[in-house]
Amino acid sequence: MANLLPQLRSHDGDMRPMSSFDMLQRQIDRIFDEFTSGWRSPDLLSESSFGMMPSIDVHEADGRVMVAAELPGVDEKDVDISVADQAVTISGEKKSVLDDKKGDRYRSERTYGKFSRTITLPFDIDPDKVEARFDKGVLTLSIPRPAEAAMKMRKIPIKH
């Protein structure tokens, strides 16, 4: 009589029948994978480890720090930018475009809600000199580095 249970490869490479526990574990893994698909892993070092976290790029060019934040599906009017000392904060809300009162929802993988992301720089930011542009779901900030905040490099001798 043939074994009708699904087969599972063991650590040593041999095939063995899948136990009820193995089948349950696979189902739990599949459900968890479907539930979390599309979620971005939160940055554990940021202030906001839950909810939406816009991905950012930060680089310096021509004496300006450039910050680009991906905000797909966010309306420009729902974005706020604030500056306090050495930090610039991008916050806002991505609103759902679906009307939950109409029809049945079969699956929803898109993330909606409020978000906030703070970027700290090694100098005080002059809010009057920060420039912001929003194009195709990308917010770009141009922040001038003050002349007095130029990076100073000093060689440190190694003592013997």
Q: Can you give a write-up of this model?
A:
Among the domains are: 10-36; 56-96 and 112-148, Immunoglobulin-like, CATH 2.60.40.790. It is flat, with a radius of gyration of 25 Å. Helix content is 11%, strand content 33%. Residues 40-50 have low confidence and may be disordered. It is mostly beta strands. The strands form three sheets. The protein has a four-stranded antiparallel β-sheet, with no helix packed on it. Strands 5-6-7 form a three-stranded antiparallel β-sheet, with no helix packed on it. Strands 1-2 form a two-stranded antiparallel sheet. The protein is built from one helix and nine strands; from the N terminus they run ββαβββββββ. It has one helix at 20-36, and strands at 7-9, 15-17, 56-61, 64-70, 79-84, 87-94, 113-120, 131-135, 138-144.
Gyration radius from CA atoms, angstroms:
25 Å
Number of helices: 1
Distance between the termini: 78 Å
For the record, the CATH class of the domain at 56-96 and 112-148 is Mainly Beta
Q: Which structural class is indicated by helix and strand composition? A: mainly beta
What is the architecture of the domain at 56-96 and 112-148 at the second tier of CATH? Answer: Sandwich
Overall, the morphology is flat
Low-confidence stretches at least 5 residues in length (pLDDT < 50)? Answer: 40-50
Portion in strands:
25-35%
